[in-house]
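Quick one:
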Amino acid sequence: MNTATIHPQKRIKHFLLYVIAGVASLGGLLSGFDTGVISGALLYINESWPLSTLEQGWVVSSALVGAVIGAAVNGVLADIYGRKKVIIATATIFGIGSLICSFAPSVSWLVFGRMILGLAIGMVNFVIPLYLSELSPQKVRGMLVSLYQLAITAGILFSYLINRIFALSEYNWRWMLGAGLVPAVILLVGISFLGDTPRWLISRRRYREAKEIFKKIDPEEDADKQVKEIQSTIKSSAKKQGKVFEQWMMRPVLVGVFIMFIQICTGINTIIYYAATIFKAAGFTDNIGALYASVGVGVVNFAMTFVAIFFTDKVGRKPLLYAGLSGITISLFMLATSFWLSSNYGYDTKWVAMGSIIMFIASFAFSLGPIGWILISEIMPLAIRGTAMSIATMSNFVFNFIVALIFPTLLEAIGEPLTFGIFGMIGVFSLFYTWKYIPETKGRSLEQIEQSWKEGKSISEF
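Output:
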């Protein structure tokens, strides 16, 4: 009798947790849309203002300049004002940036507008994983943080569809970039109805609010015990306030930075940003054909993210990383080989190139994409979590900026085979680094993970 009455209540409360996580994850739509939309828009921007390869690199990578700034200031802002207010700010800034890009009268204004967009992206890529990680019970934390990556892939797919819809319209690229206002408004409205995270509320001594949120999101756990555990961690950190950055804390920060290096420097955003350009180079001769191929990439990216959502908390983070990085590395060497055969022997390898790109995207979507963000949201010590995640996120955008800026020039200088071969070698390094230095965090509370760092445990002992 008791079970029959309590069980539906628990299910309803868990449903509320998923609703909260789903709304917060809409921030990923902003990041995904901005990442994908420039791929198709760039084809038509070139028709309005013929751009050199370096200018193309700047149009794409200018957003990443703003993203570095956004990531740099975001940790402090999120710790002072809370996670929710920062998310509201990102949605507003993204909407403004979309409008500037849509009405840009020159390349300079377009670059400026994309820097404004980047400011929002740098903030949202930090604060949403942090928000979800601090909000989620440990048994479903990986799945819920993965929702953010799912939203990113949905945003990329949405942007590719928008590119195709407006491709034959007058002012096509302006409509493409202006459509970013839609996900910005959705996030702004949705986040307005949510609260902040219990861990941030406790850090501000708002214990009653934190307990209420814990009771809603995880009714099976003792809310008082959870609050006391976090209080204890905060008090322990406060005693050492004069030396917040202790030596043991640098280890997870460095691991977080290298996770971001692996995520970006295996080449994901060269594929996303320049998908249409790569497909044209591979043999899809017209813009519409290249855009259709890009939509296919977006569909695979979105669909394969569900693998991470369903299996991250079941099989663990590292097994998925091993599988994904293996697929990424193989596909990069396949892509390099297809371009080499095409350029040296004249073979029609466009379908091999497309298959390689789809394999790359599928492998990334269930591994490095979501798990990179899950890990950096889990491994950082509470006392410096905002700052540490900000450092990791900022490094992500620095790596992203460098790769996106030099990619068109690399293609022109050394060609596609060697360029993608270099990314493949980074994939080999990434497999080694994952085995040697990245911990398995499945089934452990954030406080337990922090204690393992503090005790100086080896990766195999985590």
